[in-house]
From TrEMBL:
Family recorded in the similarity comment: Belongs to the Cyclase 1 superfamily.
Organism: Fusarium longipes
Superkingdom of source: Eukaryota
Family annotation (InterPro entries): KFase/CYL, KFase_sf
Annotated GO biological process: L-tryptophan catabolic process to kynurenine
Record's protein name: Cyclase
Length: 257
């Protein structure tokens, strides 16, 4: 990594190091708010001007834009701009592995799955990446709209079951130690739902590490463009609403190739 990029994974604490430093403090064991007690950006601090410029230089090639149809005061003022990476789990699982599944079930995506998808797509992660995971929820929703609308009606009358990242220690450590600046997925929940544990990934991503979570991103057009280009990284731009004291916002997100 270029020195101009700022902090690197080698200089940032691992989750195990975070736990060790917190054992004698009155804070959650895995709290990694490492930019000061008054910080409001969390992992967005990784999106430095140097890192954004590097992403722009390496990821914006032909100017093609893909809207992600997702339509915080500190987040709005800073912006969420940098290198985005799509892990197209749905395509890998159903088309490459030939193992169909229903994204309207609590299908769990495990660490070995994410690493296999990254390897298949030749993705090499960088510090500060914005991670997008395509679970297949949106594709399944569109399919059910045409072929089985009663399935959508049924899903709306029960507690949701959703495909997403598994609640495992391995996933939790991976999400922390990769130092993603933000994460997002195409389902109403980034993680599988209901949780298989007594805890949720949301608790660690948002409260302990300051990692923004995007949900219900329409990743279908993006998946098509990534496959067409055989490139699953891009320049990512998100401008949340400037709402002082707000706790959520439309992402207003776009991927640019």
């Amino acid at each position: 990594m270029s020195p101009a990029m700022g902090v690197s994974l080698k200089t940032l604490p691992s989750l195990e190091e975070v736990k060790a430093s917190n054992r004698d403090r009155d804070v959650p064991l895995e709290a990694a708010w490492i930019w000061g007690e008054n910080d409001e950006l969390g992992r967005l601090n990784l999106l430095t001007p140097e890192r954004i410029l590097h992403a722009k230089t390496t990821e914006m090639v032909d100017g093609h834009c893909v809207s992600l149809k997702c339509g915080m005061q500190a987040w709005s003022e800073h912006g969420i701009v940098g290198r985005g990476v799509l892990l197209d789990y749905h395509r890998w699982k159903t088309e490459v592995r030939k193992e169909p599944y229903d994204a309207f079930t609590s299908h769990a995506i495990h660490l070995e799955d994410l690493e296999a998808v990254a390897s298949y797509q030749n993705v090499e992660f960088q510090c500060g990446d914005i991670l997008l995971v395509r679970s297949g929820y949106t594709a399944t929703y569109y399919e059910y709209e045409k072929s089985a609308p009663e399935r959508l009606a049924e899903a709306g009358t029960h507690k949701p079951n959703l495909a997403g990242l598994a609640q495992t220690e391995e996933i939790k450590t991976w999400l922390h130690d990769r130092y993603f600046s933000a994460v997002a997925g195409d389902a109403p929940s980034f993680e599988c739902w209901p949780t298989t544990q007594k805890w949720h990934l949301h608790e660690y991503l948002l409260a302990c590490w300051g990692v923004p979570i995007g949900e219900m991103f329409d990743l279908e057009a993006l998946a098509v463009q990534c496959l067409k280009r055989k490139r699953w990284s891009f320049f990512f731009v998100s401008t949340p609403l400037n709402s002082p004291g707000g706790v959520a916002s439309l992402a207003n997100a776009m991927a640019i190739f």
